[in-house]
Amino acid sequence: MNRRGFLTGTVIGAVVLYVVGFLVYGLALATAYTPTVIDREAPLFVWIFPAQLAWSALLAFILF
Fold this sequence. Notes:
By secondary structure, the protein is mainly alpha-helical. It has helices spanning about 5-30, 45-64.
């Protein structure tokens, strides 16, 4: 496993996880929970992307 491949896989994986998460939770399931949620705050996107980076680094480490 070389460092460049690991970093490339981590960054691309984080972007893919971010986009897929938005498509699933932001669009597909957006109306599924509206009757049960009262004054739900917007998610903190500043913390979502570092979490996606950590998750994709773990996946890249396992797969490489």
